[in-house]
Every structure is written in C-alpha cells, then in structure tokens.
Amino acid sequence: MKDRSKTKWGLIACAFLVSTGLCASTVVAQTAPATTQYDASSRVFRIDAADSTYVLGINENGQLQTLYWGKRLSANDPFPAAKATSGGGFDLSTSNTPQEFVSWGGGLTVEPDLKITFPDGNRDVVLKYVSHHIDGNTLSVIMKDISREVYVTLEYQPDAETGILRRSATIENRTDAPFTIEQVAAGTWNLPHGTDYRLRYLTGGWAAEWNLQEQSIHPGKTILESRRGTTGAQNNPWFAIDHNVSTDQDEGSVWFGALGWSGSWQIAIEQDMKQQVRVTGGPNAFDFGYLLKKGEKFTTPYFYGGYSAHGIGGASRLLHRFEIDSLLPHHPTPKLRPVLYNSWEATGFDVNEPGQMALAEKAANLGVERFVMDDGWFGGRKNDHAGLGDWYVNPQKFPHGLKPLIDKVHSLNMDFGLWVEPEMVNPDSDLYRKHPDWVLNFPGRPRTEGRNQLVLNLARPDVRAYVYGFLDKLLKENDISFLKWDYNRNWSEPGWPAVPQDQEKNVYVDFTRNFYSILAELRQNHPNVEIESCSGGGSRVDLGVMQYTDEVWPSDNTDAYDRLQIQNGFSYPYTPGVMMAWVTESPTWVNNRTLSLEYRFLSSMQGSLGIGANLNKWTPEELTKATQMVAQYKSIRETVQRGELYRLITPENNSEQSVTETVSRDGKQAVTFAFLHSSTEYSSFPRIFLRGLDENAMYSAHAFAGKLAGDTPAQASGAYWMHHGLDLDLRGDFQAAAFTLTRSN
Ligand code: GLA
C-alpha cells in the first residue's frame, strides 16, 4: 500500500475528475493530503485520508477508544479526550466502551480481539496503552497487559487515494514461557451510535457464488465466516453497513471492510446492550489455537476498512481503485487482462497434443491472446480419481512433453498458461503412495475425501518444499506465462500429527502463510508469470490472495444469465478488472439454458473476457461474430477493467433487467451493458440514466450490440445522458445491448 499523498497524483486525478464533474461530488477531498497526527494534550490520534477521517483516543483507563469514523472533517474540528463509557453490575465499562482492540479479561462480554491461555492456567488479559509512534502516516500504538509481558502493537495504515485504512495487530510474547492464542483479530471497527443500520454481505456455494444479502442489524451478533481451512464461498470476507433508509446505490454513508486472509476467518457484527455496532475480524476462533513461544511475535491478517459518502456504489469504487492502485501485483499499474482461451469446458480431462493445437489455432483466429490448457495433462490423470500430486507431463497425451504445444501457441502469437492444483493429492497417485503422512489427518481416523482427493498439509516444511519445487521446475523447464492455481475441496480432519500436540492447531495459520510464501517466491523467481486464484470457482477470492495473484475465477457457473447475478455480487468488493469471465456453450451444462452468442459475449465482457467453449463446434458465422466481439472488447477493455463502475439497475431480487455502466479513468469513454430477462405485455425497457459524466462535455453514442431507440441523438451533453437519459430498443427474452459514449471535447 503506497502513500502517494505527497505526489502529484491526487492533484492530477482531481483535475481530471473536476473536469468530468466527478470530483465535486465524489472525491474532492483527495486533493487534501493524507495526515496522521497526535494531540498530546487530549491524547487523541487523528488519521485523515482522501474523503475520510478516523479518530481514536486514549481514555482515563488507558484503553484505546474509537472517537470517530466517517466523512472527512475540517482540519480544525475539535476532539475532546476519550472517556470510558460507564457500566453497571452486569455490563461492565470494559464491554460498553467502544474499544479498538479488546482482550478477553476484566469481565469482557463482547467479541474479543484477543484471548490467551497461559501455561499456569491464567486466561485473563487486560491491555493498556504504553506508547505509540507515527512513521509517515502509519500509526502504531503499543499496548501491554497490566501485569504480564504480553505486548500488542496495533498498526493503522491509511491509503491516501481512497481513505481505506489497513489494520493489523502484532502479539508479542515477552514472558518466559510459551502461551496459546485462542482467538485473535486485527481489530474492531466501531460505528457511530445508531439503531437503523443495515448489513450487506455475500453468501454462496459451488456454481452459485456471490449472492448479495441484506439485513437490518438488531441487538445480537451475526458471524460471517469460513471454517473450511480456506476462504470459502459460503460467505466472503467482506461487509458493508449503511443506514436502512438509503435506497440509491450512489447516495448515503457506507462503512465497509474486508479481511485479507485466505484461511478460516470470521467477521463478527455485533450490536451490544448499548445499541453500539462493532465489527471484529480475523482468523476464525473455531478450533483455533496458535502456540506463541517465548520471544515470538504473531501478526494478524490485515483488516481493511473504509467509508464512502456515496453509497454502496461509492464503496465498491473505492475498493476497486484500492485493489488496482495499491494491492494487486504490479500495482499501481497491473497489466490489463489478456483475452484468454481455456480448454476445460471443451475437452475436460481429455487433453492431448493434436487436440489442444487445433483449439489453439481456432482461438488465435478469434484474437485470443492467451491459451490455457486446463486439467488432465499430468500424471495418470484421466478423470478426477487419480493423478493429483504427480506433476509430470503425461507421456501418452504429450509424448514429446509440453514444448511442441507451447511452441505452437507462441507461433500463433499467444502466450501459454497451465492448470495446477498444488495443495491436493489423489490417494491414487505416486505421491500419496510414497507420502501418506503428508495430508491433513488425525491418526487412526478416516480420511474424508472430497472430489476423490485429500488436502496436503502445506504447513509442513517438506510439503511446502515439494510444492514450491515442482512448480519452480515446471516454470523453469517450460515457457509458461500463466498458472491457473486451483483448489477443489475444503478441509477435513485438520490434524498435524508430526508436531507436538500443543502446536497442531498452528496449521490454520501456517498453511495459509506457506501458501502465500510459495506464491511470493514463485513471483519473485518467475516475474513474468501471472497467476489466477481459482477454487472450484470463487471459493478463494479475498484481499489476501489478491496481493499475489493477477486475476480470479469467480464461479464454475458460466451460464451468461446466471453470471449477471454472480458478477453483480462479485463487484461489491472486487474489481471487474480481475474477474475472469468465459463465453461457453449454449445450451449450457449448468441449467440447459440457450442464449445467443452475442448475449454470452456481452455478459463476459463485463469482466476480463475469456472463451471456454469447444470452438470445433462453432459455425463460421459464430466464429466471425466472436472475432468481432473480441476486437470490440479490446477497444473497451481498459474502461471495463480500470474504470469507475456504476450499477444502474442491479439483477438483484430477480429483476427483469440489469444495467452496468463503467466510466474510464480519463473520462473519455463510458461503456454500458444492458440485459433483459424477458419482456411482459407491451412494456418498454426502463430508460437508462447514465452517471459519472461531465455535465458540460459532449459525448457521442454508439451501440455495438443491440439498438438505441430511434430518437436517440448521435451526440449530446453529459447532462443530457445523465438527466434526460436514453432508451434502448430491447424486447423479448434474454436480450442484450451495449453502447459506448465517447467524449468529444
Ligand atoms: C475446478 C475449476 C474448473 C476446472 C476444474 C478442473 O472445478 O473451477 O474451472 O479447472 O476444476 O478439474
């Protein structure tokens, strides 16, 4: 995360944004630099960045207390000293006071950020402020237990462009014995007092990820979580809270956050007895344990949080911008996603040299830039019963190795990508026969299989070395530009019998840390290789893995209509710039739905375009159409992948329509996609009112799919497109249209 507050970037960005009319309404405060200050007289810290202000203070009990989180305030606004909230016999002050980081002890009854068991049986920890330092704009506050040598450093790092605050906690054992961390979080976000809050979050399952949920926040607790060992699709580690009254996507205050962690995780949203709403996030406390030895430190995953004054749409745009400019590999200029072809839905496990070469030729003719061979190329892999773990090229399918295919792909001006699933093993594999002890297991208990496979214990140093070793070798021996890194089951029996019993639960943390460290090391040693995070679809998408991967696979569900909902949900926390989206067969295997090729393309063009169909089956007309759509995509891809997304009509609640608009960062192009599920009676498609344009600039409209209504002017002002709006000639079932607005002055 970069602090570019002192660069010219903010000024340049805002100069452009003022000219587009955006700056005045959305990001005017970006011109003001980010600052982090401490007022020693009131013992108050104040962090200002972009359009938000965050204030915390040390109260009379030495607790660190949230004083404000919201829209950026005037530099001179007063902040009196923090004062602990009073308590009674049942609800003690410790629980009532909105603390930044609370340990379990001193009678705490709300969700703790830290719970420790010491070897002598003591489980009470009470933290008080010790000292702090400010380095640039990064604030570190050091707390210590009232009697034991347990130190906690809370770190706050603001992002100058978006105001997103990155928080973490480091626990340090300076006692003379090990202790067990039973629960730990990066910190707690405390919202302003209120009783009308609404929580948004995401739920899902395989081939049905990214469903947006909304519920009023009532007294009690909602836990979003994964107990699966990795991120999971049941919930995604993201939340957004606003006032129940807001109805417009782009209006109102929104507080949001996301965890950067790809292991089991939890985010607890709690409204306490005093009607205060607090959000605590970190590794999942269920079955958790981390033995911290004398002298060791434990740093939590990052918990990012932000504030938008421009509704949930504004919150998404801040996250998208943050991901691209400050989080993804190669930020602030990650490469645009190439148009990709993937063999999975075309050939399944039945890959071989001539078959893949034939597909590569067809893909290249369409304008595809990257050819990816999916599952089936290695070991004894004929189906999903065997082969995982044996990462040598299957000699029957590729008698001359991968080189002839890779050379062919290169000769067609595409780069080459390969599917791997490094953390898994089939019991029917040489690796498992040799190392049955390498999987997660409890001795003497069954090893539950999922998709006929077991999970390698990546926390083990020998497993980590094996996984890194075969990937490094594969990349050294073959000219591979891209890995699709898959992960196709959840954990079961998460035992680690090779280590002493009191360290076994370290597996929850060490597995994920080793996963990240392998990705980091591969990137360092193979800097031109890009990586996609896939987990049977979108089960491992989070701000942790996105630090190491260039794109993600949101779902195995490639039905272009289902995808509208999936992509819509995905876009709340994550940028379409990393969202791979393939055009596949019709009717689709998912639900036997038939959709036109144009509809399928338009749906996929809302993200990073890929093609996953069997091109041998496409007619000459279809191949021609596809070639046109690929070329069209290349002319809008920078806007779609980097621009500012407006969800004009969401497909939520079974809406008959769905419309998105993306405005390029330079303001010169806006791209709109519109989809109709089905017309009823003689009704028209709702008028589309664009957003994010410059009222005074002129834009010309061009439909590249479907038709604008006959009376649409060829050119008009931003004010016209935003306030008068335009109509589409869209009727029937599963219809789609797309148009650009191009700025002419
Ligand atoms: C997972 C992925 C698919 C495909 C298969 C291969 O399900 O999500 O895209 O790669 O594995 O087995």
Report on the structure:
It is a single chain. This protein has 14 helices and 37 strands. With 745 residues, it is of the alpha+beta class. The protein folds into 3 domains: 36-327, Beta-galactosidase, Chain A, domain 5 (Distorted Sandwich); 340-423 and 457-642, Aldolase class I (TIM Barrel, Alpha-Beta Barrel); 649-743, Immunoglobulin-like (Sandwich). Strands 6, 7, 8, 9, 12, 13, 15, 16, 20 and 21 form a 10-stranded antiparallel beta sheet that branches. An 8-stranded parallel beta sheet has the order 29-28-27-24-23-22-31-30. The two termini are 35 Å apart. Mean pLDDT is 95; it is low at 1-30. The site of alpha-D-galactopyranose has 11 residues, from loops. It holds the Pfam family Melibiase. Keywords: Glycosidase, Hydrolase, Signal. Substrate binds at residues 206, 374-375, 451, 484-488, 534, 556. Residues 1-24 form the signal peptide.
Give the count of structural domains: 3
Estimate the helix proportion, in percent: 10-25%
Fill in the CATH topology of the largest domain: Beta-galactosidase, Chain A, domain 5
CATH architecture of the largest domain: Distorted Sandwich
The CATH class name of the largest domain reads Mainly Beta
The CATH homologous superfamily of the largest domain corresponds to alpha-galactosidase from lactobacil brevis
Ligand types: alpha-D-galactopyranose
Secondary-structure-based class equals alpha+beta
Describe how the helices and strands are arranged.
Elements: H1 9-20, H2 22-27, E1 35-39, E2 44-49, E3 52-58, E4 64-71, H3 93-96, E5 114-117, E6 127-135, E7 138-145, E8 150-158, E9 165-173, E10 179-184, E11 187-190, E12 197-205, E13 208-216, E14 220-226, E15 238-243, E16 254-260, E17 265-271, E18 277-283, E19 290-292, E20 297-299, E21 302-308, H4 311-327, E22 340-342, H5 344-347, H6 353-366, E23 370-373, H7 403-411, E24 415-420, E25 424-425, H8 430-434, E26 454-455, H9 461-477, E27 482-485, H10 507-525, E28 530-533, E29 551-552, H11 560-571, E30 580-583, H12 597-604, E31 608-611, H13 620-642, E32 644-649, E33 657-663, E34 669-678, E35 698-705, E36 715-717, H14 718-724, E37 733-743
Parallel strand pairs: 22-23, 22-31, 23-24, 24-27, 27-28, 28-29, 30-31
Antiparallel strand pairs: 1-2, 2-3, 3-4, 5-10, 6-7, 7-8, 8-9, 9-20, 9-21, 10-19, 11-18, 12-13, 12-15, 14-17, 15-16, 16-21, 17-18, 25-26, 32-33, 33-34, 34-37, 35-36, 35-37
Helix pairs in contact: 6-7, 9-10, 11-12, 12-13
The structure holds alpha-D-galactopyranose (GLA).
Alpha-D-galactopyranose binds next to loops.
Organism: Granulicella mallensis
Keywords: Glycosidase, Hydrolase, Signal
Catalytic activity: Hydrolysis of terminal, non-reducing alpha-D-galactose residues in alpha-D-galactosides, including galactose oligosaccharides, galactomannans and galactolipids
